[in-house]
Each structure stands twice: as C-alpha cells, then as structure tokens.
Design brief:
The complex is a heterodimer of chains A (141) and B (645). Chain A contains four helices and eight strands, in the order βαββαββαββαβ. Chain A is an alpha+beta fold and 141 residues long. Chain B is α+β, with helices and mostly antiparallel strands and 645 residues long. Classes of the chains: A alpha+beta (141), B alpha+beta (645).
Chain lengths: 141, 645
C-alpha cells in the first residue's frame, strides 16, 4: 500500500473550509508561481459549503498509467507515487479522461498533463493546510 | 511590456457601459508606488474623475473593483475584493470590501482592477475569460436573486469555477444600501450595489488561468511564517471556532452590543442569539475565504419551526446584532432567515437593521402610523416585522420605498423629530459598536471616511483590553488608559494609526482579521510581505506615508463634497444619552469635541474646519489636491488668519 494526500475531517467544526491554500502551495512548489490552474490539487466547491480536495489517489492499478500511449506515466520508486514524465508526455489527454477521480489536469500553457507527485514525500499542500485537515497517510485504495 | 513590479498584472479593464466599449489599460508604475492597490487605486480614481457635481446614480459616477499586490498569492487572507465609488447613501467617498474568491480570479484573468463608467441602456453583465472581456445581455438575469444569478452564469458557461459578483433586487431597485454579493459574501456597505443597479450592470463573471508572480522566492516561506503567526495567536482558535458571532456574548457583557436602536448596549436575551446557540442548533459547517487560515464563515440552517429550511452562509456578529438586538428580536432562526433574505436580495445587513430599528421607534412614537406602513405594525421584538420590512425595502414597496433611502433621508421625509432616532454618521447607519462602551469609536465612527463604520480605524485594543498587543504596537507608556474601553485617553492616536494601517490593509488587499483582530501581525510584517511580493523597498515609514496619503485623499474627496468638522459628529442619542453596563453614566457629548481636537492636531488638519492643510498635503505629495481645494475655498488659509491678526 502507498501513502497519499487525504482529507480527514469531522464537520461542522473540523473541516475543509475551502480556502484553497493547498492549491497555492502546490502551484508554487512545482512552478514557482501562484496559479490554481497549475495546482495538482483542486478544491471542489459544492452547494451548502461543501469543499473537498480532488487529488490523485495514487492507485495501485492506475488507469492513467495503462492508457498513456507515450508510456509517460511511471511509478516513483521512493514514494510509490504515480508520476508523469514531462519529457515523454505529449499532452494527448488520455490519462485525464481515464482518471476516475478527475485528478489529472492540463497545464494551462504547456501541452502536458500534470498531477500530484507527492512532492517527493513531503506534500506541500499538507504542510500548508491551515485547518490541518489534509494528511499524508496510508489509507489504501 | 512587463510591469515594473511583481504582484501586479500591470493592466486593468476600463468599461464604458454607455458605449459598450471595453479597453485594457496599463496600470502605471506611479499608481503602484503612490497608492499601492485596492482602496488606494479607487480613491485616486474617484478624486480625479468624480467631481462634486456628480450624482452617485448618474452615469458619470465610477465603480471600481480593485485587487492589490497580494491578491491571489498565498499571503494569509489575500483574497479580498475592494469596491469603490461615490456612495448613494452618503454622497461622499464610499467603499465596500468582500471576502470570497472573486478578487483572486480577476487577478488570474490578468487584471489589477476594473473601472466602470456610464450606464447601459439594457441590463448587461461583464464576462471575463483571461484576455477576452465583453459585455453581454443580462435581461434574462434581471430580477434574479444573487445565488440564482451565480448559478445561471455557471450553467450558461458550463464552468462551475466561474466567480461572480452580482446584485439582487435591492441593487436593481437602487436601494441606497444595496450590497454586491459573491457566493454569499458581501461587499456590503455604502450602497455599492445600488451603483451597479443604476448602471444596469447585473454582474461580473470571471475566469482566469494566468500566474500571479512575486518578486522574491523568500515570499513563499515568509507567508508561511505569517500563517503560523496567525494560527499561534491566542485569540485565533476562538475566532476560527465561533467566527464573529463569538463577540455577541463578549460585547453584551461590556455594554457594547447596540440594543433597541442604541437605547442600550446590552440585550437581556443575548444568550439566545449567541455563538453557542448558533453552533449547537444551526451550524452546518465552518467556511473560509481564499487563502485564509482563520475561516470565520458559518454555513447555517434552520432545522425546525416557522423558518425551517432556511440556509445561509456567512451569518456574523453585525447581522446578529442588526437584525436581532437592534430590533429586540431574540429569535435566532428569524435572524438567519433575515440574513438569507438580505444575501439573496443583496442588502447590507447593518444598514437594513438600522433602518428597521429606526422605523420601529418612529412607529412607537407616532411619527409613522399604520397608514404609512400599509397595515404593518412595526413593534419591538417581532421577528415577522424584521422579515417583512426586509422584503418591502428590497422591493421598495410602500414604506419600504422610504426606508430604502436610509435613515437620514427617511427621517427628513418623516419629520416630527424622527431625526433623533436616526442613528447614523454622514448618512451611514452605525455598525454594531456602542461607542459609549468602547470610546475609541466615539472618534472612529465620525472620522471614518465612509460614514459610521468600524472598519476604517478598527481600534480593537480597547475593546476588552488587549494589553500585549497594545504594548507591542504602541509601547508600555500608554497603559492602562489605552486599553480601557471607557477612557478617551490616547485613542485619537490609536484611531489615526488604525485608519492608516487600515488603508494599507484595504490596498494590499488583505483582511482586517489577522492584522487588526486578532492582532497577529502589524506594519513591519506587512511591509516585509509587500516588499517581497512587489520588489519595491517598502519600509514601515514608507508604508505609513502611503496609508496617510490614501486617507488624506479620501478626506479631501469628502471636503470637496462639502464635508467639514460640523459633519464629524455622533448622532444626538449617542451624544446625549448614557450607555449601559460599563458605559453607564457615559454619553459621547462631553467627550467627542476634545477627541476631535486632538485628532486634528495629530493629523495636522485645521481644527476649526477639519480640512487638511496645504502643509500636510504637500508633505504627502498631494500638492495638486491642495491647489484644487484652494480654488474651491476649501483649503484652510492659516497664514491669512495669522496675518489678519
């Protein structure tokens, strides 16, 4: 089993409040800029103030990895994260449509797909979550 | 060409609603250097473009939606939107500030601000998608409430991440205290929503995918440090858990909780409308604005009783007071219902509660009769009265049409001594701080550039006595009076400092939370954060000068509109009647003028007129402003006075 970024909350008090600090941390960590479109974690905001992260589950049997025609999606040996090799990705988007969690995104400028790589084992989103509801934990999929 | 400073997009949108023209204009280095962003930008534009003859509802008024250099970054609370225009409620400088996610999205689309002028012939909305910005027909949205408007826009464009700032019925009907709403968050005060209505602008919808860059890599780590400074503050956990409703009990205990139209500062049934009750019976979930580590928002619903099914986001202290204690209403469910109605119609809950309490007291004293109200009996403590009046105001129906004008105009219309019950400064209904029990507000409400408002100076340290913050910010030598709520000593200094710090906060743009309350960080930290973000060298002295420049220019705008010291006054009731609890025996009457004298001295403004002096204005690089005020005979001629002697 592998570790991944998960939400653990206990509403109404302990909850994701939808501040999206995680998106900003992710964007800066990976791209040195603040742009939620370059974040690999997305806070989905629904009616009745429901907020939850959309982020890669690091599936053990990963559909994205299977469908990628360029073999650009590989498993990181250290963290077991499912990662996209930018040099191999041709931006076809097959992985995006294959993901059951909708957790792979198109980079807004470059023709590549981006997704959570667990920041090499110290996810910046978890570190920056001010409500402390994001965890880097082994919960299995 | 790339903008000289980071943190800005370097361009803004200029929209002429009359011609339908939308242009992209360079922001200008000078603007960032002299006015920083947000409120500063808006103030300068109003001064330059909206003269004294312009009616707030005329096409010549401007409406500015501004971000600041921190907007869209990870700096804690950097998600706020500043809206600026000449206020239809007060006729002077007006602004309103809202949390949510709208302002960052505007920045990601690549704009520092939007300036609207003119008036569209038919209802329109501005649709912004990165570089594309155009006016579109909004006929199908006219009449919709604010939540439905957002939903329709998202559906029409097939994108649920679009951010929308809209008006409801109240803005469309030009209720003079109509708000602009963004997902249940309000840019509420001073009638900015009514300006939108007068321009036939239903909403702005924005989607952006661009970067917000900062100058130094160190910014990211420093913002994290500040986030932790906020989280570690002793007052943050309660602010997160209870939000501003946590103040209800606290303020009630010290007599600072306006009750029965400011007849008292404590409410017998405050326990029934407290944060504890809200949490236990109504809370659905805590919510927070963009990049905020505190999360003061509350999603709440009514689960049984006559208001069952009511759902609202963002119920807070001011609303609980204005729709509750102000009208002696102790029914929390009805307050939530009232909040939901105000959000849907786009009404400022503070002014709405203010006019309702005013109407009730006028009715009690026979100034308003059942004939005037169309059969409704506005009585104290009746939740239905509050809710029905909200409906009437939003629709401008019957007596609602008069109340929609605000207490000052309504009192003029009613006559017969109604003005005694009109609790306002310069036409703006007073927010929920009984100034007799926190005497920094005797001054703060009257020197606020937008009328009776707590957020311009936001002097929190004498609220319940924040000794550590007072020592850290001002020094030990001012204890104990500086933290004593019923002392006026040193308060002019605190108010002046708060107004200038506040001007920077509203220009950065960040929240008063984390800065003023809880008092987590102050001038030095904000100066460092802004320097790292922009690449400007902003030390505390430079920042203070920018803050002072902005505040002086707001005052000058008001002076040009005819404001002088005679307008800087608390309403008669506050001047003459005693407060309650710790304010028992205190009225503002004997305290106000000495505080003003000291304040004007600190500001180097003329004590007699309250007008800024040439000396001060030139020191703030506002020589042109001094020149034009001189032409209008609104510049104190101190030398001539001395010469004549």
């Amino acid at each position: 089993m592998g570790k991944r970024v998960v939400l653990k909350q206990n509403p109404p008090l302990t909850t994701c409040v939808g501040c999206r600090t995680c998106e900003l941390a992710c964007s800066y960590e990976h791209h040195k800029t603040f742009n939620p479109k370059k974040s690999r974690i997305l806070i989905a905001q629904r009616e009745r103030a429901i907020n939850f992260p959309v982020v890669c589950a690091q599936c053990l049997k990963a559909p994205c990895m299977e469908v990628c025609p360029s073999k650009a999606i590989v498993r990181d040996s250290k963290t077991n994260a499912v990662v996209i090799r930018e040099d191999l990705c041709d931006g076809c988007g097959a992985c995006i449509s294959s993901c059951p969690f909708k957790a792979i995104f198109m980079h807004p400028e470059k023709n590549i797909a981006i997704k959570c790589d667990l920041c090499g084992g110290d996810p910046s989103c978890v570190k920056h979550c001010p409500q402390s509801v994001l965890y880097y934990a082994d919960v299995g999929v | 060409m790339k903008f000289k400073y980071s943190g800005y997009t370097g361009r803004y949108l200029w929209v002429d609603l009359t011609s339908g023209e939308v242009s992209k204009v360079p922001t200008g280095d000078w603007r960032a250097e002299l006015y920083l962003g947000g409120s500063g930008f808006g103030t300068k534009i109003l001064w330059d473009e909206v003269s004294a003859s312009v009616d707030p509802f005329s096409p010549e008024n401007r409406l500015i939606f501004a971000t600041g250099p921190l907007t869209g970054t990870i700096w804690p609370t950097a998600g706020r939107l500043q809206v600026i225009g000449k206020s239809p409620l007060t006729g002077i400088y007006g602004d309103a500030n809202s949390g949510g996610h709208f302002a960052p999205e505007l920045k990601y689309a690549g704009y520092d601000m939007i300036i609207f002028q003119g008036r569209s012939e038919k209802p329109v909305y501005l649709w912004i998608e990165d570089d594309s910005a155009e006016l579109r027909d909004a006929s199908h949205l006219w009449g919709e409430n604010t939540w439905e408007t957002e939903k329709a826009i998202r559906q029409d464009h097939g994108d649920d991440q679009i951010r929308v700032a809209s008006i409801g019925l109240a803005g469309e009907n030009k209720v003079r205290f109509a708000a602009i709403m963004t997902s249940g968050r309000a840019a509420a005060r001073a009638g900015m929503g009514a300006i939108m209505g007068s321009k036939n602008l239903k909403c702005i919808a924005v989607r952006g995918t661009k970067d917000v860059e900062v100058a130094s890599d160190e910014f990211y780590d420093y913002a994290y440090e500040i986030q932790h400074q906020i989280l570690a503050n002793e007052y943050t956990p309660n602010t997160s858990r209870y939000g501003t409703p946590g103040l209800v009990t606290l303020m009630n205990e010290i007599g600072r909780f306006p009750t029965k139209n400011f007849q008292r500062g404590d409410f017998e049934y405050a326990d029934e409308i407290s944060a504890g009750v809200l949490e236990k019976e109504f809370l659905v979930r805590r919510t927070g604005c963009f990049a905020c580590p505190i999360g003061c928002g509350r999603a709440a619903e009514v689960r049984n009783g006559p208001y069952k099914g009511t759902y609202t986001e963002g119920i807070e202290y001011e609303t609980i007071n204005s729709l509750g204690a102000r009208a002696l209403n102790r029914d929390m469910a009805s307050i939530l219902k009232g909040d939901q109605l105000c959000d849907s119609y786009g009404l400022d809950t503070i002014s709405t509660g203010g006019v309702i309490a005013f109407a009730i007291e006028c009715f009690e004293n026979g100034i308003v009769t059942k004939e005037d109200t169309g059969g409704l009996e506005p009585k104290w403590g009746d939740p239905e009265v509050v809710l029905q009046l909200i409906e009437k105001i939003a629709r401008r129906e019957g007596i609602g049409d008069v109340l929609a004008e605000g207490v000052k105009r309504a009192a003029q219309k009613f006559g017969n001594g109604a003005d005694y019950y009109a609790i306002h400064v310069k036409g703006m209904e007073t927010s929920a701080q009984d100034p007799r029990a926190q005497q920094s507000y005797i001054l703060g409400h009257i020197t606020s550039t937008r009328g009776a408002d707590h957020l311009k100076s936001f002097p929190c340290i004498d609220e319940t006595g924040y000794v550590d913050a007072a020592v850290e910010r001002y020094g030990r030598q001012y204890l104990p009076e500086i933290v004593d709520g019923v002392s006026t000593k040193y308060k002019p200094m605190v108010v002046k400092d708060g107004e200038e710090f506040g001007a920077i906060i509203d220009s950065a743009v960040v929240c008063k939370f984390g800065t003023q309350f809880p008092p987590c960080y102050y001038w030095p930290e904000l100066a460092k954060g802004l320097s790292l973000a922009t690449g400007m060298t902003l030390d505390v002295a430079k920042m203070k000068k920018i803050g002072e420049r902005i505040y002086n220019l707001q005052r000058c705008f008001n002076v040009r509109e005819g404001i002088s010291r005679k307008d800087d006054t608390q309403p008669k009731r506050i001047l003459m009647e005693s407060g309650s609890k710790r304010a028992k025996g205190y009225s503002a009457g004997p305290l106000q003028e000495p505080m003003l004298d000291e304040y004007f001295e600190l500001r180097k403004w003329d004590k007699k007129t309250g007008w800024p002096t040439r000396e001060k204005l030139e020191e703030l690089d506002l020589k042109d402003v001094a020149d034009s005020l001189e032409k209008l005979n609104r510049l104190p001629n101190l030398q001539a006075v001395n010469h004549n002697r």
